[in-house]
Design a protein that fits this description.
By secondary structure, the chain is an alpha+beta fold. The protein folds into 2 domains: about 170 residues, Type I PLP-dependent aspartate aminotransferase-like (Major domain) (Aspartate Aminotransferase, domain 2), CATH 3.40.640; about 140 residues, Aspartate Aminotransferase, domain 1. The protein has 8 helices and 12 strands. The strands form 4 sheets. The chain has a 4-stranded mixed β-sheet, covered by helices on one side. Strands 9-10-12-11 form a 4-stranded antiparallel β-sheet. About 30% of the residues are buried. Pyridoxal-5'-phosphate binds next to helix 2. Its cofactor is pyridoxal 5'-phosphate. Belongs to the group II decarboxylase family. Its EC number is 4.1.1.15. Keywords: Calmodulin-binding, Lyase, Pyridoxal phosphate.
Length: about 350
Protein backbone atom coordinates (compact mmCIF):
# COMPACT_ATOMS: atom_id res chain seq x y z
CA UNK A 1 0.00 0.00 0.00
CA UNK A 2 2.81 2.40 0.88
CA UNK A 3 4.82 1.50 -2.26
CA UNK A 4 1.66 2.22 -4.23
CA UNK A 5 1.22 5.54 -2.39
CA UNK A 6 4.78 6.45 -3.45
CA UNK A 7 4.08 5.54 -7.08
CA UNK A 8 6.48 2.61 -7.26
CA UNK A 9 6.34 0.81 -10.63
CA UNK A 10 4.04 -2.09 -9.84
CA UNK A 11 3.20 -3.51 -13.25
CA UNK A 12 3.61 -7.10 -14.43
CA UNK A 13 6.91 -8.51 -13.26
CA UNK A 14 7.61 -5.40 -11.18
CA UNK A 15 7.58 -5.48 -7.40
CA UNK A 16 8.72 -2.98 -4.86
CA UNK A 17 10.01 -4.33 -1.56
CA UNK A 18 9.84 -2.85 1.89
CA UNK A 19 10.23 -3.37 5.58
CA UNK A 20 8.59 -2.13 8.76
CA UNK A 21 11.01 -0.50 11.20
CA UNK A 22 10.97 1.23 14.56
CA UNK A 23 10.96 4.63 12.87
CA UNK A 24 12.61 6.60 10.10
CA UNK A 25 16.03 6.37 11.76
CA UNK A 26 16.15 2.58 11.44
CA UNK A 27 14.69 2.81 7.93
CA UNK A 28 17.45 5.27 6.97
CA UNK A 29 20.19 3.04 8.44
CA UNK A 30 18.87 0.14 6.35
CA UNK A 31 18.44 2.13 3.15
CA UNK A 32 21.89 3.66 3.62
CA UNK A 33 23.37 0.23 4.17
CA UNK A 34 21.72 -1.07 1.00
CA UNK A 35 23.18 1.88 -0.95
CA UNK A 36 26.63 1.28 0.51
CA UNK A 37 26.61 -2.45 -0.27
CA UNK A 38 25.30 -1.94 -3.79
CA UNK A 39 28.00 0.64 -4.51
CA UNK A 40 30.71 -1.62 -3.05
CA UNK A 41 29.56 -4.56 -5.19
CA UNK A 42 29.63 -2.34 -8.27
CA UNK A 43 33.15 -1.03 -7.52
CA UNK A 44 34.42 -4.55 -6.78
CA UNK A 45 33.09 -5.75 -10.12
CA UNK A 46 34.89 -2.86 -11.83
CA UNK A 47 38.11 -3.67 -9.97
CA UNK A 48 38.09 -0.22 -8.37
CA UNK A 49 38.71 0.75 -4.71
CA UNK A 50 35.61 0.41 -2.58
CA UNK A 51 36.82 1.48 0.84
CA UNK A 52 35.70 5.12 0.78
CA UNK A 53 31.95 5.31 0.29
CA UNK A 54 30.33 8.70 0.62
CA UNK A 55 26.85 10.15 0.72
CA UNK A 56 25.71 13.64 -0.20
CA UNK A 57 23.04 15.30 1.94
CA UNK A 58 21.58 18.72 2.55
CA UNK A 59 23.04 20.77 5.39
CA UNK A 60 19.75 20.57 7.25
CA UNK A 61 19.39 16.79 7.58
CA UNK A 62 18.10 15.12 10.71
CA UNK A 63 20.75 13.79 13.09
CA UNK A 64 20.04 10.16 12.06
CA UNK A 65 22.02 10.82 8.85
CA UNK A 66 25.07 11.76 10.86
CA UNK A 67 24.49 8.65 12.94
CA UNK A 68 24.30 6.52 9.81
CA UNK A 69 27.52 8.03 8.44
CA UNK A 70 29.40 7.45 11.68
CA UNK A 71 28.03 4.01 12.55
CA UNK A 72 28.44 2.62 9.02
CA UNK A 73 31.67 4.44 8.12
CA UNK A 74 30.38 6.47 5.23
CA UNK A 75 31.67 9.99 4.56
CA UNK A 76 29.00 12.71 4.66
CA UNK A 77 29.84 15.04 1.80
CA UNK A 78 28.80 18.53 0.87
CA UNK A 79 28.99 19.26 -2.84
CA UNK A 80 27.52 21.77 -5.22
CA UNK A 81 24.52 20.20 -6.93
CA UNK A 82 24.53 20.05 -10.68
CA UNK A 83 22.55 18.40 -13.46
CA UNK A 84 23.47 15.22 -15.25
CA UNK A 85 24.36 13.00 -12.30
CA UNK A 86 23.54 9.34 -12.45
CA UNK A 87 23.53 8.87 -8.70
CA UNK A 88 20.90 6.85 -6.86
CA UNK A 89 18.74 8.95 -4.57
CA UNK A 90 17.16 8.09 -1.24
CA UNK A 91 14.30 10.37 -0.17
CA UNK A 92 13.96 11.02 3.55
CA UNK A 93 10.20 11.50 3.67
CA UNK A 94 9.90 11.04 7.43
CA UNK A 95 7.04 13.55 7.73
CA UNK A 96 6.30 14.50 4.13
CA UNK A 97 5.74 10.92 2.94
CA UNK A 98 2.27 10.90 4.45
CA UNK A 99 1.53 14.53 3.51
CA UNK A 100 2.64 15.05 -0.09
CA UNK A 101 0.59 12.17 -1.57
CA UNK A 102 -2.59 13.69 -0.14
CA UNK A 103 -2.01 17.45 -0.29
CA UNK A 104 0.28 17.68 -3.32
CA UNK A 105 -0.42 14.61 -5.49
CA UNK A 106 1.05 16.35 -8.55
CA UNK A 107 4.39 16.98 -6.88
CA UNK A 108 6.91 14.54 -8.33
CA UNK A 109 9.21 13.66 -5.46
CA UNK A 110 8.83 9.87 -5.24
CA UNK A 111 9.39 6.77 -7.41
CA UNK A 112 8.06 8.71 -10.40
CA UNK A 113 11.63 10.06 -10.54
CA UNK A 114 13.80 7.28 -12.01
CA UNK A 115 16.83 7.97 -9.79
CA UNK A 116 14.81 7.60 -6.59
CA UNK A 117 15.66 4.07 -5.41
CA UNK A 118 14.40 4.09 -1.85
CA UNK A 119 12.19 6.15 0.45
CA UNK A 120 11.63 6.17 4.20
CA UNK A 121 8.59 7.45 6.06
CA UNK A 122 7.63 7.57 9.74
CA UNK A 123 4.33 5.87 10.46
CA UNK A 124 4.36 7.60 13.82
CA UNK A 125 4.38 11.09 12.37
CA UNK A 126 1.77 11.90 9.73
CA UNK A 127 1.09 8.17 9.25
CA UNK A 128 -1.07 8.73 12.35
CA UNK A 129 0.14 5.78 14.45
CA UNK A 130 1.55 5.79 17.98
CA UNK A 131 5.35 5.98 18.34
CA UNK A 132 7.41 3.02 17.17
CA UNK A 133 6.76 2.52 13.47
CA UNK A 134 8.53 3.55 10.29
CA UNK A 135 8.87 2.17 6.78
CA UNK A 136 11.62 1.73 4.21
CA UNK A 137 10.54 1.04 0.64
CA UNK A 138 12.80 0.09 -2.29
CA UNK A 139 11.79 0.69 -5.89
CA UNK A 140 12.55 -2.93 -6.84
CA UNK A 141 14.11 -6.11 -5.51
CA UNK A 142 17.32 -5.26 -7.39
CA UNK A 143 17.78 -2.14 -5.26
CA UNK A 144 18.10 -4.17 -2.08
CA UNK A 145 21.18 -6.45 -2.23
CA UNK A 146 20.07 -10.02 -1.57
CA UNK A 147 23.05 -10.69 0.73
CA UNK A 148 21.61 -8.24 3.30
CA UNK A 149 18.44 -10.28 3.64
CA UNK A 150 18.56 -13.15 6.11
CA UNK A 151 16.23 -16.08 5.66
CA UNK A 152 15.16 -18.04 8.69
CA UNK A 153 12.83 -21.00 8.89
CA UNK A 154 12.62 -21.66 12.60
CA UNK A 155 9.30 -19.85 12.98
CA UNK A 156 7.52 -22.35 10.77
CA UNK A 157 8.11 -20.99 7.27
CA UNK A 158 10.71 -19.15 5.27
CA UNK A 159 10.92 -15.67 6.72
CA UNK A 160 13.09 -13.03 5.08
CA UNK A 161 14.41 -10.43 7.50
CA UNK A 162 16.24 -7.15 6.90
CA UNK A 163 15.97 -5.11 10.08
CA UNK A 164 18.34 -4.21 12.87
CA UNK A 165 16.12 -5.92 15.44
CA UNK A 166 14.60 -9.34 15.06
CA UNK A 167 11.55 -9.40 17.34
CA UNK A 168 9.20 -6.45 17.23
CA UNK A 169 5.65 -5.86 18.47
CA UNK A 170 3.01 -6.09 15.79
CA UNK A 171 0.63 -3.55 17.31
CA UNK A 172 1.92 -0.56 15.36
CA UNK A 173 1.94 -2.50 12.10
CA UNK A 174 -1.70 -3.41 12.68
CA UNK A 175 -2.48 0.17 13.69
CA UNK A 176 -0.88 1.47 10.49
CA UNK A 177 -2.86 -1.02 8.42
CA UNK A 178 -6.03 -0.02 10.23
CA UNK A 179 -5.47 3.70 9.66
CA UNK A 180 -4.75 3.19 5.97
CA UNK A 181 -7.87 1.18 5.29
CA UNK A 182 -10.11 3.01 7.77
CA UNK A 183 -9.24 6.52 6.58
CA UNK A 184 -8.28 5.81 2.99
CA UNK A 185 -7.08 8.47 0.62
CA UNK A 186 -9.96 10.81 1.42
CA UNK A 187 -9.61 10.46 5.19
CA UNK A 188 -5.89 11.18 5.16
CA UNK A 189 -6.43 14.13 2.81
CA UNK A 190 -9.09 15.62 5.11
CA UNK A 191 -6.82 15.31 8.13
CA UNK A 192 -3.82 16.83 6.34
CA UNK A 193 -5.97 19.70 5.04
CA UNK A 194 -7.23 20.32 8.54
CA UNK A 195 -3.65 20.41 9.88
CA UNK A 196 -2.77 22.89 7.15
CA UNK A 197 -5.75 25.11 8.02
CA UNK A 198 -4.86 25.07 11.70
CA UNK A 199 -1.30 26.04 10.80
CA UNK A 200 -2.73 29.06 8.97
CA UNK A 201 -4.87 29.98 12.01
CA UNK A 202 -1.76 29.92 14.15
CA UNK A 203 0.22 31.89 11.59
CA UNK A 204 -2.48 34.58 11.38
CA UNK A 205 -2.64 34.84 15.19
CA UNK A 206 1.13 35.25 15.43
CA UNK A 207 1.15 37.88 12.70
CA UNK A 208 -1.57 39.77 14.54
CA UNK A 209 0.68 40.23 17.57
CA UNK A 210 2.93 42.31 15.30
CA UNK A 211 5.97 40.89 17.07
CA UNK A 212 7.07 38.04 14.79
CA UNK A 213 8.45 37.36 11.34
CA UNK A 214 7.04 34.14 9.89
CA UNK A 215 9.92 32.23 8.32
CA UNK A 216 8.11 29.05 7.20
CA UNK A 217 6.30 28.58 3.92
CA UNK A 218 2.54 28.08 3.73
CA UNK A 219 2.86 24.76 1.92
CA UNK A 220 4.72 21.58 2.80
CA UNK A 221 4.67 20.07 6.29
CA UNK A 222 2.00 21.91 8.33
CA UNK A 223 4.17 23.94 10.65
CA UNK A 224 4.82 27.52 11.62
CA UNK A 225 8.37 28.73 12.24
CA UNK A 226 8.73 32.28 13.48
CA UNK A 227 11.26 34.62 14.98
CA UNK A 228 11.09 37.89 16.88
CA UNK A 229 11.21 41.11 14.90
CA UNK A 230 12.91 42.94 17.73
CA UNK A 231 15.65 41.22 19.73
CA UNK A 232 16.75 44.25 21.69
CA UNK A 233 15.04 43.12 24.91
CA UNK A 234 14.18 39.47 24.55
CA UNK A 235 14.95 36.43 22.50
CA UNK A 236 13.21 33.26 21.29
CA UNK A 237 14.84 31.10 23.98
CA UNK A 238 13.15 33.18 26.69
CA UNK A 239 9.77 32.80 24.98
CA UNK A 240 10.26 29.04 24.66
CA UNK A 241 11.24 28.85 28.30
CA UNK A 242 8.29 30.83 29.57
CA UNK A 243 5.80 28.94 27.42
CA UNK A 244 6.68 25.80 29.34
CA UNK A 245 4.89 27.29 32.32
CA UNK A 246 1.67 27.12 30.28
CA UNK A 247 2.35 23.51 29.34
CA UNK A 248 3.67 24.23 25.84
CA UNK A 249 6.90 22.83 24.53
CA UNK A 250 7.78 25.08 21.62
CA UNK A 251 11.44 24.55 20.76
CA UNK A 252 13.71 27.47 19.93
CA UNK A 253 16.76 26.58 17.87
CA UNK A 254 19.31 28.01 15.48
CA UNK A 255 19.24 27.45 11.72
CA UNK A 256 21.78 25.29 9.80
CA UNK A 257 25.27 26.55 8.76
CA UNK A 258 25.35 29.91 6.99
CA UNK A 259 22.13 30.94 8.72
CA UNK A 260 23.13 30.13 12.32
CA UNK A 261 22.47 33.73 13.33
CA UNK A 262 18.72 33.11 12.84
CA UNK A 263 16.87 31.59 15.78
CA UNK A 264 13.34 30.32 15.28
CA UNK A 265 10.50 28.98 17.33
CA UNK A 266 8.74 26.12 15.59
CA UNK A 267 5.29 24.60 16.04
CA UNK A 268 4.49 21.43 14.12
CA UNK A 269 0.76 20.92 13.65
CA UNK A 270 -0.43 17.38 14.09
CA UNK A 271 -3.85 15.81 13.81
CA UNK A 272 -4.69 16.41 17.47
CA UNK A 273 -3.68 20.10 17.43
CA UNK A 274 -7.13 21.63 17.00
CA UNK A 275 -8.14 25.15 16.03
CA UNK A 276 -9.03 25.83 19.69
CA UNK A 277 -5.53 24.79 20.71
CA UNK A 278 -4.04 27.03 18.02
CA UNK A 279 -6.02 29.97 19.39
CA UNK A 280 -5.05 29.12 22.95
CA UNK A 281 -1.36 28.97 22.00
CA UNK A 282 -1.57 32.45 20.47
CA UNK A 283 -3.21 33.72 23.68
CA UNK A 284 -0.47 32.17 25.80
CA UNK A 285 2.25 33.59 23.56
CA UNK A 286 0.60 36.97 23.98
CA UNK A 287 0.67 36.56 27.77
CA UNK A 288 4.33 35.59 27.66
CA UNK A 289 5.15 38.64 25.55
CA UNK A 290 3.39 40.94 28.00
CA UNK A 291 5.16 39.31 30.89
CA UNK A 292 8.52 39.63 29.19
CA UNK A 293 7.82 43.27 28.37
CA UNK A 294 7.33 43.99 32.04
CA UNK A 295 10.49 42.19 33.17
CA UNK A 296 13.10 44.98 32.83
CA UNK A 297 11.09 47.30 35.01
CA UNK A 298 10.55 44.66 37.65
CA UNK A 299 14.18 43.56 37.58
CA UNK A 300 15.44 47.13 37.92
CA UNK A 301 13.10 47.79 40.84
CA UNK A 302 14.15 44.59 42.51
CA UNK A 303 17.84 45.25 41.96
CA UNK A 304 17.53 48.68 43.55
CA UNK A 305 15.73 47.14 46.50
CA UNK A 306 18.30 44.36 46.70
CA UNK A 307 21.33 46.64 46.72
CA UNK A 308 19.66 48.84 49.34
CA UNK A 309 19.17 45.82 51.57
CA UNK A 310 22.77 44.70 51.00
CA UNK A 311 24.12 48.12 51.76
CA UNK A 312 22.28 48.45 55.02
CA UNK A 313 22.43 44.94 56.35
CA UNK A 314 25.36 43.37 54.44
CA UNK A 315 23.06 40.40 54.04
CA UNK A 316 23.13 37.77 51.29
CA UNK A 317 19.99 38.35 49.31
CA UNK A 318 18.28 35.58 47.38
CA UNK A 319 17.91 35.89 43.60
CA UNK A 320 14.53 36.91 42.22
CA UNK A 321 12.50 34.39 40.24
CA UNK A 322 13.18 36.36 37.07
CA UNK A 323 16.91 36.41 37.72
CA UNK A 324 16.87 32.66 38.26
CA UNK A 325 14.88 32.23 35.06
CA UNK A 326 17.36 34.38 33.12
CA UNK A 327 20.26 32.40 34.50
CA UNK A 328 18.62 29.13 33.44
CA UNK A 329 17.99 30.53 29.96
CA UNK A 330 21.60 31.71 29.66
CA UNK A 331 22.96 28.33 30.84
CA UNK A 332 20.65 26.47 28.46
CA UNK A 333 21.68 28.66 25.50
CA UNK A 334 25.36 28.13 26.35
CA UNK A 335 24.75 24.37 26.53
CA UNK A 336 22.97 24.37 23.14
CA UNK A 337 25.64 26.57 21.54
CA UNK A 338 28.45 24.34 22.75
CA UNK A 339 26.87 21.18 21.42
CA UNK A 340 28.16 20.16 18.01
CA UNK A 341 24.73 19.50 16.54
CA UNK A 342 22.65 22.58 17.14
CA UNK A 343 20.38 22.51 14.17
CA UNK A 344 18.38 20.32 11.91
CA UNK A 345 14.89 19.01 11.86
CA UNK A 346 13.00 16.39 13.73
C1 LIG B 1 13.48 14.42 8.15
C2 LIG B 1 13.61 13.42 9.27
N1 LIG B 1 14.35 12.32 9.10
C3 LIG B 1 14.46 11.39 10.05
C4 LIG B 1 13.84 11.54 11.26
C5 LIG B 1 13.98 10.46 12.30
O1 LIG B 1 12.78 9.79 12.36
P1 LIG B 1 12.33 8.82 13.54
O2 LIG B 1 12.14 9.69 14.73
O3 LIG B 1 11.06 8.24 13.04
O4 LIG B 1 13.40 7.81 13.76
C6 LIG B 1 13.05 12.68 11.49
C7 LIG B 1 12.34 12.98 12.74
O5 LIG B 1 12.41 12.65 13.77
C8 LIG B 1 12.92 13.64 10.46
O6 LIG B 1 12.16 14.73 10.60
Amino acid sequence: MIAHLFNAPLGDGEAAVGVGTVGSSEAIMLAGLAFKRKWQNKMKALGKPYDKPNIVTGANVQVCWEKFARYFEVELKEVKLRDGWDTPIHVDAASGGFIAPFLYPELEWDFRLPLVKSINVSGHKYGLVYAGIGWAIWRSKEDLPEELIFHINYLGADQPTFTLNFSKGSSQVIAQYYQLIRLGNEGYRNIMENCQENAMVLKAGLEKTGRFNIVSKDHGVPLVAFSLKDHSRHNEFEISDMLRRFGWIVPAYTMPPDAQHVTVLRVVIREDFSRTLAERLVMDIDKVLHELDSIPARVTEKLIATSAVEEHHHAIVKKTAIEVQREITATWRKFVAEKKKTNGVC
